[in-house]
Each structure stands twice: as structure tokens, then as C-alpha cells.
Write a structure and sequence with these properties.
The chain is mainly beta and 164 residues long. The protein is 5% helix and 47% strand. The protein contains 1 helix and 10 strands; from the N terminus they run ββββββαββββ. A 6-stranded antiparallel beta sheet has the order 4-1-10-9-8-7, covered by helices on one side. A hairpin with a 7-residue loop joins β5 and β6. The two termini are 13 Å apart. It binds calcium ion. The site of calcium ion (CA) has 7 residues, from loops. This is Protein C2-DOMAIN ABA-RELATED 7. It holds the Pfam family C2. Keywords: Abscisic acid signaling pathway, Calcium, Cell membrane, GTPase activation, Lipid-binding, Membrane, Metal-binding, Nucleus.
Amino acid sequence: MDFLGLLRIRIRRGINLAVRDTVSSDPYCVLCCGTQKVKTRVVRGNCNPVWDEELTIYIKDLNIPITLSVYDKDTFTVDDNMGKANIDIKPLIECLKMGLECLPDGTKVDRVHPTRDNCIADESCIVWNKGKMVQDMILRLKDVECGEVEVQIEWIDIPGGKGF
Ligand SMILES: [Ca+2]
């Protein structure tokens, strides 16, 4: 197997997404990493959609960008763009490398702050919980007038994977 492991991305909800139809939008998310592409379902007529969906991608190389894009589903025309954001998994990987498996549940291992280069809208915590390292983040969408998407990422080791 030539990949490092899996990344589970829980796409919780969109906040104040852009209007692309008359008064609302029909948003869905697309995650891309290299040649992989996975999607959420469409939530009709809601700029604050709740998807609560888990998508999984495999990671071959930590330097291949992971992009989340939001689109408005249209029936007769091409789906409209509602912005995108990069998901930076390196802080989470750094925490995993520390080997902190003995920590009590709920320990905050690190905090990632919004910067000019990342797409994080608010302080994002990396937490050790129930045997897993997870990071909640609110992504600030770019190339659009407004909108944020709340996600949680989690690394999954796989038997036979190379690890990092
Ligand atoms: Ca539409």
C-alpha cells in the first residue's frame, strides 16, 4: 500500500453561505485531494445547511492540498460557485507524532489560530478524545462574498499503511 493513512472529515454545517438563487441556495460540498473527489448531499433552499456527513479520503502525501469547495445545485445550468477553503492537516499530524496516547479524554493538545495563510475563521482546538486525535475547525471560504463551513478532521491509521 502506498498511502500514509486515511483522513475522516466530518462536514457539520455551513454558516451564512452565499445566496446564488433568488433568495437562497442549494448547497453541497466537494472535497478534493489529488485525483480524489467526494461530495456531500445537496441541502435545498438553505444558506445555513446542516450536512453532518462523514467523508473519507486517503492520504498519499501530506503536501497534496485538500480543498473543500461549496456549490449551489442548479437544475438547468452549471452549479454556481459558493467559495472554497484549504484544509491544513499538518498541525493535527504534528500532534499525532508526539505520541500522546496516555492523555486523559478531552485534553486540548494544541490550538491553531487564524492567519493570513490558513483558512481558519476562529481558534481551532486539537483534542485527544476517546482514543482519537480530532480537530474542529471553522473554515472561512474564499473567492466568495461570505460563508463559513464547520468541519472536524480525524486521522485514521490503517493496517499496512506507511504511517507518517
Ligand atoms: Ca440552485
